[in-house]
Design brief:
- It contains 8 helices and no strands.
- The mean pLDDT is 92.
- It has one domain.
- By secondary structure, it is mainly α.
Length: 176
């Protein structure tokens, strides 16, 4: 898995690129939380649930149906998020879906149960370019630095470019 901060970066970059009027800060924060939420499934280890189980790591919480459920929940709180229900639904669902899609790009683990509950099969992307992050106890190590450098190259720099380009275009086309 990419680091938790990297998962949050995608909705943040989208929020910066689109601007506050299109994606209010509360909605962006909800998107960031939804993008990080699937990794809460590591708590299943403490309950004795195996990694490969449907409810294990990268299982049901990494599915498209889970992302849709996050979006539907956000739509129910659209007023609080200061946006329309449809914007909340799509932004939060896409933010949550970005998590398994990023995980599919990693070089470790068992893959992602993207199509759960219809299939328990685990999937990877054809390109596995992101180094998988070590868990907490090994994160602050040489391996952790390697992972951060990999994420910087494949995720952070493109997202910074996206956010910067979007903000520049918004500013450039803003009415004077």
């Amino acid at each position: 898995m990419p680091t938790i901060l990297t998962h949050a970066l995608l909705p943040l970059a989208a929020g910066i690129a689109a601007g506050r009027r299109r994606l209010p800060p509360r909605l962006v924060v909800a998107g960031m939380m939804a993008a990080m939420l699937p990794d809460a499934d590591v708590a299943m280890f403490a309950l004795g649930i195996d990694y490969a189980h449907a409810f294990g790591h990268r299982g049901a919480s990494h599915s498209l149906i889970f992302a849709l459920a996050c979006g539907l929940l956000a739509a129910c709180f659209a007023r609080t998020l200061r946006t329309s229900p449809i914007t909340a639904l799509f932004f939060v669902a896409l933010s949550a879906a970005s998590h398994p899609l990023l995980d599919m790009l990693t070089d470790g683990g068992l893959g992602v149960a993207l199509y759960w509950p219809w299939s328990d099969a685990r999937h990877f992307a054809p390109w596995r370019v992101i180094d998988v992050s070590p868990f907490a106890n090994r994160f602050f190590s040489a391996r952790g630095v390697e992972v951060l450098l990999s994420e910087m190259r494949w995720v952070w720099l493109p997202m910074i470019a996206l956010a910067g380009s979007g903000a520049w275009l918004r500013h450039r086309h803003a009415p004077m």
